[in-house]
């Protein structure tokens, strides 16, 4: 359907959405379209009742409130686009209230756990050198794992110690601390030329066969080193990103500067780290202040 293709281009070129966001929107809309077809209608003709029925169906098959909220937002955005294009006159998603979901504070590692985790890849073999460079770079810059796996060699300037990142028309520059520069340099000089044979492959990090590294592949890597370090906390691919932001804030960095380094379009996304630090100190106060007991 041409409307799908036009909406996808709108997300990419106008909203400057990330590839993961675009994929999520399009998947939600495709699944809703399939439901509409099963109900003997189509997504352009579906009314408010059809959408409510779909949300009830999602509840019946055990989908969470967060999933239903995301689906509603995706469908509403699609219909708003169609109205702006003149394809529809009203939005079938109007009147459907989004479920308020409590935003869970992200899990982070403390500074000792970070040092312990980053010290785990301690071998001189190719894999250990590559893994250490990836972990150091993630904590040094706070980039997403999806950004890490898409980094190209040209994104890294080791002479001045920065990453230069692009997302559509938006770009950002993130500094790297010296230890990260050193480990990435060691990887670039000693490892990458040996494992990346394809001259057309410009990704900075690949798997050990010189092919693109998936997010799932990296998740297995970080889980392995967390277990090796004896860290009991639940580690996700975003843990180092969250820790990067929280530690900067804890040590006096301004929220607006952290926002720019993380690439957030809105500071409200960054403010969760302020809540995290406040929660940490409130808990410490309640536990250790003699008059708080």
Give the distance, in angstroms, between the N- and C-terminal Cα atoms. 63 Å
| Percent in helix | 55-70%
Number of helices: 13
Number of domains: 2
Could you tell me the mean pLDDT? 87
Using DSSP, what is the number of strands?
3
Spans of at least 5 consecutive residues whose pLDDT stays below 50 are none
Note the quaternary state here: single chain
Radius of gyration in whole Å, from Cα? Answer: 23 Å
Indicate the CATH topology of the largest domain.
hpI Integrase, Chain A
Largest sheet, in brief, is:
3 strands, antiparallel
CATH class of the largest domain: Mainly Alpha
Characterise the protein shown here.
- The protein is mostly helical and 293 residues long.
- The protein has two domains: 2-85, DNA polymerase, domain 1 (Orthogonal Bundle); 111-286, Intergrase catalytic core (hpI Integrase, Chain A, Orthogonal Bundle), CATH 1.10.443.
- Helix content is 57%, strand content 5%.
- The protein has helices at residues 2-13, 19-38, 48-60, 65-85, 111-118, 126-141, 145-150, 178-190, 192-195, 215-229, 239-250, 255-262, 271-288, and strands at 156-157, 162-167, 170-175.
- The chain has a three-stranded antiparallel β-sheet, with no helix packed on it.
- Strand 1 (156-157) and strand 2 (162-167) form a beta hairpin.
- Helix 2 crosses helix 4, helix 6 packs antiparallel against helix 8 (178-190) and helix 11 crosses helix 13 (271-288).
- The mean pLDDT is 87.
């Amino acid at each position: 359907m041409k409307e799908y293709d036009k909406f996808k281009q709108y997300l990419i070129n106008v909203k400057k959405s990330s590839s993961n966001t675009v994929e999520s929107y399009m998947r939600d809309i495709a699944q809703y379209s399939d439901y509409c077809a099963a109900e003997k209608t189509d997504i352009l003709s579906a009314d408010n009742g059809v959408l409510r029925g779909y949300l009830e169906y999602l509840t019946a098959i055990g989908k969470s409130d967060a999933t239903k909220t995301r689906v509603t937002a995706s469908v509403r955005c699609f219909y708003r686009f169609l109205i702006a294009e003149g394809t529809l006159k009203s939005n079938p998603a109007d009147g459907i209230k989004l479920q308020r979901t409590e935003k869970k504070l992200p899990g982070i590692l403390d500074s000792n756990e970070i040092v312990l985790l980053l010290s785990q890849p301690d071998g001189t073999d190719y894999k250990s050198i590559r893994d250490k460079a990836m972990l150091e770079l993630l904590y040094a810059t706070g980039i997403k794992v999806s950004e890490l796996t898409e980094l190209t060699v040209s994104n890294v300037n080791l002479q001045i110690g920065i990453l230069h990142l692009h997302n559509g028309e938006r770009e950002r520059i993130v500094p790297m601390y010296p230890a990260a520069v050193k480990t990435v340099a060691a990887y670039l000089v000693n490892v990458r030329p040996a494992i990346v044979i394809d001259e057309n492959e410009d990704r900075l990090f690949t798997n050990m066969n010189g092919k693109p590294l998936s997010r799932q592949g990296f998740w297995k890597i970080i889980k392995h080193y967390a277990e090796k370090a004896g860290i009991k906390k639940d580690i996700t691919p975003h843990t180092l990103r969250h820790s990067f932001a929280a530690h900067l804030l804890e040590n006096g960095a301004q929220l607006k500067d952290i926002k720019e380094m993380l690439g957030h379009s809105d500071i409200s996304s960054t403010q969760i780290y302020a809540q995290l630090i406040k929660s940490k100190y409130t808990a410490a106060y309640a536990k250790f202040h003699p008059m708080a007991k």
